[in-house]
Amino acid sequence: MANCSIALQVLPQIKESLYVCGGENSNSNTQEVFRVVDEVIKYIDSTGVKYVVSPFETVMEGDFDELVSIVKEAQKIAVKAGASSVLSYIKLAYNPKGVSTIEDKTDKYQ
Question: Quick one: how many helices (H) and strands (E) in the chain?
Fold first, then answer.
């Protein structure tokens, strides 16, 4: 049973400036942000943890220490993929006796 659930939103910063919707370079910046985020998701997939991608974040569940390590590495992956820096928003639920699963929370809406 998983003892942790983490929602991770990675916002790569491109070209030494904050990503902002609009402006003359917004389409190319958006595509670059998506490309870097795709690299992070590919990394998460490679770890073998259970995860679900949604429009704003990726939710993972598993062992607390493993997931925190993945979050840490995700920052490095984003920079390696071309981000000048990274803003990440993290929501974390931890219970040593187990957390509610992704299915527990979402199946009734599927």
Answer: 3, 4
Q: How far is Cα 5 from Cα 101, in angstroms, rounded to an integer? A: 8
Pair of tokens at residue 101: 């699963």
Is 84 within 8 Å of 14 (Cβ atoms)? yes
- Compute the average pLDDT of residues 59-88: 97
State the DSSP code for 15. Answer: T
Enter the tokens of residue 61: 């569940």
Contacts of 4 (CB under 8 A, 6+ apart): 61, 62, 63, 64, 67, 68, 92, 93, 94, 99
**CA distance linking residue 34 with residue 68, whole number of Å:** 23
Predicted TM-score (pTM) of the model is 0.86
| Separation CA 6–CA 35 (nearest Å) | 22
